[in-house]
């Protein structure tokens, strides 16, 4: 595969940037477990996938490549990843080139050999990067994950658990991280717990993953979430946990509840399908519509649409059919096909929507291009009225904690009222779920979450202008990583 080719985007909404997994399970083919766990976490990143394993002799092998988990690995490659423990990673990125260099797990040996997989974003990446470069450390990619790997690799404290304890206070931002040495798989989560990380049990052994859906697929059992500021070490001795940093202000990403995590994953004690259904119910209470039919923007809008229909008493049907494989083509449509644009992703059913006043439920709008086209398609298919209901508040601010949200100016809600957004999208009416409604559905209070993309209230003490995803690539030539 040509590394500069890009898969067609699945949607113009926010994009999660990574999923991580780690397991210590001698005799259970850990690389295969990692493969299936990553398969379950595929929605968290479709650009690259990688697994690192460590064999009995303490030899770490890393295999990573651009593409989907199913494209990157086959039986032969999994056999080459023999060992007692493994870590894995799926990544989403918007970078043009160099995507292979930024794929993970990252491998480094600057004193301590390790492989590392990370979900999140360091807001002090540029400072750390410059400091390490001044110390003569070379980098292969431009990801902040390699910075964490380098800091841990050069850290003199032994064993790796103590190295993590020494390095964590230097990191700012969001990091749910899994690192593997010859002896252990160690996972740690930033003191705000921005990105998710869960701990599972597999027989008498243990594993960690971004989401609990990764445990279901390998027959592991969700124990609990790794706490903010906590380290968990998976070794021959079993499980060791340490609170490395205090957690004054948990800031779990509320968008994980709304969209990112899979509906069958459990977060903060609740399965997300149910939470999202409740969001739809509350949305129906807050913003009823005089309409005939509820449809969802599949698949992510499904649970909220079910909830909206339940609470409103309106009928629900599938008015839009999604091509589930659209994100998997690397072939760009030619000019002729491009005219049909969104039909590659969604196809409206005139038999369902024609002559109807339709409520369309989706989970979020960022730039609005897809939404505008969907509304146009529904009108072309004969819908009499289109009432848009969104199970989240308007997104008006970028995320600096590991999610690609576009720039402020690209967001359709930037400097627009809800009525202006409705006019811009061509909807007969538009309503968003209130922030209070979100937390009513989530069931845990606002003070333990991040909702900066809705409110502009950045809970990690930065001003929201911290080092972005491309900060390292934006350094002047000669300073940036190669
Ligand atoms: S800014 Fe939004 S997407 Fe980013 S961590 Fe906060 S809630 Fe999540």
Summarize the SSE layout with pairings.
Layout: E1 15-16, E2 18-24, H1 30-40, E3 48-54, E4 60-66, H2 69-72, H3 75-80, E5 85-91, E6 106-109, E7 113-122, H4 125-134, H5 144-154, H6 160-167, E8 173-180, E9 185-189, E10 198-202, E11 205-209, H7 213-218, E12 221-225, E13 230-235, E14 238-243, E15 252-253, H8 255-260, E16 266-267, E17 270-271, H9 272-286, E18 293-296, H10 302-312, E19 315-316, E20 320-322, H11 335-338, E21 346-348, H12 350-353, E22 357-362, H13 369-380, E23 385-390, E24 403-404, H14 418-425, E25 429-432, H15 435-442, E26 449-450, H16 452-455
Parallel strand pairs: 15-26, 18-19, 18-22, 22-23, 23-25
Antiparallel strand pairs: 1-24, 2-5, 2-11, 3-4, 3-5, 6-7, 7-8, 8-9, 9-13, 10-11, 10-12, 13-14, 16-17, 20-21
The chain binds iron/sulfur cluster.
Offer a concise description of the structure.
With 482 residues, the chain is an alpha+beta fold. Helix 10 (302-312) links the parallel strand 18 and strand 19 (315-316).
Architecture overview:
By secondary structure, this protein is α+β, with helices and mostly antiparallel strands. The chain has two domains: 15-251, 4-Layer Sandwich (Glutamine Phosphoribosylpyrophosphate, subunit 1, domain 1), CATH 3.60.20; 273-443, 3-Layer(aba) Sandwich (Rossmann fold), CATH 3.40.50. 27% of the residues lie in helices and 25% in strands. It is built from 16 helices and 26 strands. The strands form seven sheets. Strands 4-3-5-2-11-10-12 form a seven-stranded antiparallel β-sheet. A six-stranded antiparallel β-sheet has the order 6-7-8-9-13-14. The longest helix has 15 residues, at 272-286. The model is unreliable at 1-11, 94-98 and 476-482 (pLDDT under 50). The structure holds iron/sulfur cluster (SF4). Iron/sulfur cluster binds next to α16.
């Amino acid at each position: 595969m040509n590394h500069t080719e890009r898969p067609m985007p699945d949607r113009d909404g926010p994009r999660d940037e990574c999923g991580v997994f780690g397991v210590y399970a001698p005799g259970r083919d850990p690389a295969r477990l990692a493969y299936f766990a990553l398969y379950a976490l595929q929605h968290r990143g479709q650009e690259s996938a990688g697994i690192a394993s460590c064999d009995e002799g303490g030899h770490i092998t890393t295999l990573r490549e651009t593409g989907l988990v199913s494209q990157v690995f086959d039986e032969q490659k999994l056999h080459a990843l023999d060992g007692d423990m493994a870590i894995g990673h799926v990544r989403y990125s918007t970078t043009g080139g160099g995507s292979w260099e930024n794929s993970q797990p990252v491998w480094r040996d600057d004193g301590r050999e390790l492989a590392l997989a990370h979900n999140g974003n360091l807001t002090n990446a540029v400072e750390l990067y410059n400091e390490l470069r001044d110390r003569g450390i070379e980098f292969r990619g431009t990801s902040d994950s390699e910075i964490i790997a380098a800091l841990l690799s050069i850290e003199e404290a032994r064993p790796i658990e103590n190295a993590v304890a020494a390095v964590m206070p230097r990191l700012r931002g969001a990091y749910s991280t899994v690192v593997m040495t010859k002896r252990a798989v160690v996972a740690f989560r930033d003191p705000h717990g921005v990105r998710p990380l869960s701990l599972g049990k597999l027989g008498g052994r243990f594993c960690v993953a971004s989401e609990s859906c990764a445990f279901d697929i390998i027959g592991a059992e969700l124990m609990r979430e790794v706490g903010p500021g906590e380290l968990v070490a998976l070794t021959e001795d079993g499980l060791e946990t340490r609170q490395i940093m205090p957690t004054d202000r948990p800031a779990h990403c509320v968008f994980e509840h709304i969209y990112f995590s899979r509906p069958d994953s459990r977060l903060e004690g609740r399965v997300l399908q149910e939470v999202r259904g409740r969001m739809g119910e509350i949305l129906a209470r807050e913003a009823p519509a005089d309409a005939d039919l509820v449809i969802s923007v599949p698949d992510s809008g499904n649970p909220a649409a079910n909830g909206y229909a339940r609470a409103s008493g309106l009928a629900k049907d599938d008015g839009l059919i999604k091509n589930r494989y659209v994100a998997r083509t690397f072939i760009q449509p030619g000019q002729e096909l491009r005219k049909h644009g969104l039909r590659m992703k969604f196809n409206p059913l005139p038999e369902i929507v024609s002559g109807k006043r339709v409520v369309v439920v989706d989970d979020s709008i960022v730039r609005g291009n897809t939404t505008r086209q969907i509304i146009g398609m529904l009108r072309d298919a004969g819908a009499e009225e289109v009432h848009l209901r969104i199970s989240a508040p308007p997104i008006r601010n970028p995320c600096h904690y590991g999610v690609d949200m576009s720039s402020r100016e690209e967001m359709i809600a930037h400097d627009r009222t809800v009525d202006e957004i409705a006019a811009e999208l061509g909807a007969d009416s538009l309503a968003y779920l209130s922030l209070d409604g979100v937390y009513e559905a989530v069931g845990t209070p606002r003070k333990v979450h991040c909702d900066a993309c809705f409110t502009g209230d950045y809970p990690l003490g930065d001003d929201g202008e911290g080092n972005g995803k491309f900060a390292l690539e934006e350094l002047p030539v000669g300073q940036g990583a190669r």
